[in-house]
Amino acid sequence: MAFSPPYSPSLFRKRDNASGASVVALDNKIEQAMDLVKNHLMYAVREEVEILKEQIRDLVEKNSQLERENTLLKTLASPEQLEKFQSRLSPEEPTPEAPQTPEAPGGSAV
Q1: Using CB atoms within 10 A of its CB, is residue 7 exposed (0-12), middle (13-18) or buried (19+)?
Q2: Is the dihedral of CA 22, 25, 30, 33 positive or negative?
Q3: What is the 3-state secondary structure (H, E, C) of the chain?
Q4: Where does the record place the region Disordered (predicted)?
Q5: Whole-angstrom distance, CA of residue 33 vs CA of residue 40
Q6: 110, 101 contact by CB (below 8 A)
Q7: Dist CA 100 CA 3 (whole Å)
Q8: d(CA 60, CA 62)
Q9: pLDDT tens track for 7-40
Q10: What is the C-alpha to C-alpha distance for residues 93 and 82, in angstroms, rounded to an integer?
Q11: Is 77 within 8 Å of 85 (Cβ atoms)?
Q12: Mean pLDDT, the chain, whole residue set
């Protein structure tokens, strides 16, 4: 007695083709989803980069302003005041002194 399969081989091939088509469709959907995620991430990164660039510009401007102010204060300070300030910055002091009101040239408080 010859063995005959309960299904036709051509039916099996059709099922494979249908399965192959669904795999391709699934692959396409996955690729579309990945593209969507990539686009959203790229948008978020670009937005964050713009925010960081703006913060950098603000910090650079603030730094320049503080450097100009520092230069001005150094030019207005007396040699005694500069020496006193430098001594406060020296690492030899174990504990920092309490902040005092800075004196303007001429000995008056600012």
Answers
A1: exposed
A2: negative
A3: CCCCCCCCHHHHHHHHHHHHHHHHHHHHHHHHHHHHHHHHHHHHHHHHHHHHHHHHHHHHHHHHHHHHHHHHHHHHCCHHHHHHHHHHHCCCCCCCCCCCCCECCCCCEC
A4: 73-110
A5: 11
A6: yes
A7: 105
A8: 5
A9: 555 544 555 566 778 889 999 999 999 999 999 9
A10: 17
A11: yes
A12: 80
In the block, residue with structure tokens 């004196």: 103
Note whether 105 and 74 are within 8 A (CB).
no
Contact 106, 77 (CB under 8 A): no
Tokens 């660039």 correspond to 53
Q: Which residue's structure tokens are 């063995």? A: 3
